[in-house]
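Attaching the record inline, Q. Sequence:
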Amino acid sequence: MAALSAALAVGLAGGCANQSVPPGGPDDRRPPIVIRTEPDTFGVMLDFDGSVRFQFDERISENVSDGGLESAVTVSPQTGEVRVSHSRSALSVSLDGGFRPGLVYRVTLLPVVSDLFGNRMRQAFEVVFSTGGDAAATATLAGDVWDRLTGRGVNGATVRAVGTDSLVHVARTDGQGVFALRYLPAGDFVLTGFQDMDRDGEVGAREAQGSVPLSLSTGDTVLVNIPVLPPDTTPAIPGRGIAMDSVTIVVEFDDFLEPSSSSDQIGVRLTREGGSAPLVTRLLHERAYELYVDQIADSFARLDSIDAAAQAAAQTAAAAAAAELDSLSDSLVVASADSSDAAPGDSLAVTGPDAGNALAGAAGGAAAVDRRPLPPRLPNPLGPSTTPGRTRPGRRIVGQLDAPLEIGVEYQLRVTGVVNINGLRDGAGDVTLIFEPPAPDTVPAEVDGGPTGVDAPGRVPAADPVRFR
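Structure, as predicted:
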């Protein structure tokens, strides 16, 4: 009995140690709320050697959604290793070596803390206090960190502002990539945004990053955006050449290209054995070419609407003219019955409708416009950026030729002077290119009521092709 009682006691104790929230009752869907901080925000704490405490209105979990407890808090400026301890309904933050005197500290609790029901804080909570520094003699930096390849804001990126005093001020971006660094001292800074993949707080050699130098004066509020990219040490190299039609070629690269770099700096030259090759008269980056084709398609659409309006007006005018001539011819026929000189079926009675038809035909002929094919659309188009004003980089350039390529002939294509997205110049290389027109039974896709511009099925490229400039 004694052994059985001891075993039962151990079992009950183990059950109590793993006890969870009892079932029943209404669901708790409200996140934990900070109800008090120590010290109070904007407090002045001279010779402060304690810790910053966040008190919640309910019991909180020891686990956070973004790593360990230390990852739940940022302390700016960084003057020591951050230590975070957990109690039933509070978190305490301290620094190795303590908080230094004469500074304004900003301690931010990130929205990664949750209660026992898994309800997570909805937004960050910040406490600002002084250990002797003047909070009024400060400035503010705000902006966003965004991915240079996609144009989207980077969630959870680390932002560091390092001043001439070597103090490191830090912030983290929210879900849209937005950050704020408040209560910075005046001075010169280097602002760096990076994706801290290893969570060590330092800019890694392989981590996407970007830096911006700037100066702050007391009372300034400066908005800045930081584009980030993974580091790169190699220039762009062409991978293949494609003939979209007889006068339009595409070169694909192994790297993203800088879309703001001038295409005039890029050299593209075609050669062939035993003959001459067309010259490249125009070069466009991928997105610029897409906009160029869109503009031509839009001009065709506007022309179509003008044509339709002109034809409708011509038909209305023709119908009105025909009705008027019919009325006039009826009166002339009546008058001719009293005249020995008038012949039955006077020509005016016939001329009225014919004149209307002739007018309609003439108007329709005047409104008719010679339709020419659009330049070809790029396969898998890059499309616009999700954020206005931020051009997405592509891997392709498009060239237009002064004469058509010959079918089945192998051309050598030499590319020089390409700038990749990291700003590395002198990208160059050689690829081959062969023009193979579509099969005769291929039906070209329609864009805004007109062909996309690929050579028509079975058509031999013209010696004097249509040019779009």
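The helical segments are 2-17, 286-336, 347-367. Residues 3-20, 331-370, 443-469 have pLDDT under 50 and may be disordered.

More tomorrow.
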